[in-house]
Design goal:
Shape: globular
Strand order of the largest sheet: 1-2-3-4-5-6
Order of helices and strands: HEEEHHEEEHH
């Protein structure tokens, strides 16, 4: 079996989130320019960001994940089974960050993400950006000429 890729882990994680009532989007650009691997919104408007890692080198070298916590109510890691033990290290904030272990078909919560409510103004901005990203992607899928149309 080939090694798992970030697309595989995103797929398995997104499937679980959907089944749990979240609406996930992959690769969402935040207001500060960072890109969240998965952002999901719950039925009640709660925002979750999931950072996906499939290699020890990528996990160790990541210095941007702290920024994501300013744009969500909950933050979690989604990793391949062989990386799960590394997320217990203090530098990955196991007391505050959730942990999902995923493959290309499914995921499981190993540790729930702690809640830290967003301020109302930030919540509104993040929710609108999420909605607009989803709407643009839907339009791109519907209209193969979107790129030319958008340039008008």
């Amino acid at each position: 079996m080939p090694p798992l890729t970030s697309v595989d882990v995103c797929r398995g994680t997104s499937r679980l989130l959907w089944l749990q009532g979240w609406s996930p989007l992959a690769e969402v650009t935040l207001a500060d320019g960072h890109r969240a691997d998965i952002m999901a919104i719950s039925r009640t408007g709660e925002i979750l960001i999931v950072e996906v890692k499939v290699s020890a080198a990528d996990l160790k070298g990541d210095r941007k994940w702290h920024h994501y916590r300013d744009y969500c109510d909950r933050f979690a890691w989604a990793v391949t089974p062989d990386l799960a033990d590394r997320l217990a290290e203090e530098r990955y904030a196991p007391d505050a960050c959730g942990l999902l272990v995923a493959d290309r078909h499914e995921a499981v919560w190993v540790r729930e993400a702690c809640e830290a409510k967003l301020p109302p103004a930030r919540r509104k901005a993040v929710t609108l950006a999420f909605a607009r990203t989803g709407a643009e992607r839907a339009l791109r899928g519907l209209d193969p000429g979107f790129e030319g149309f958008a340039a008008w």
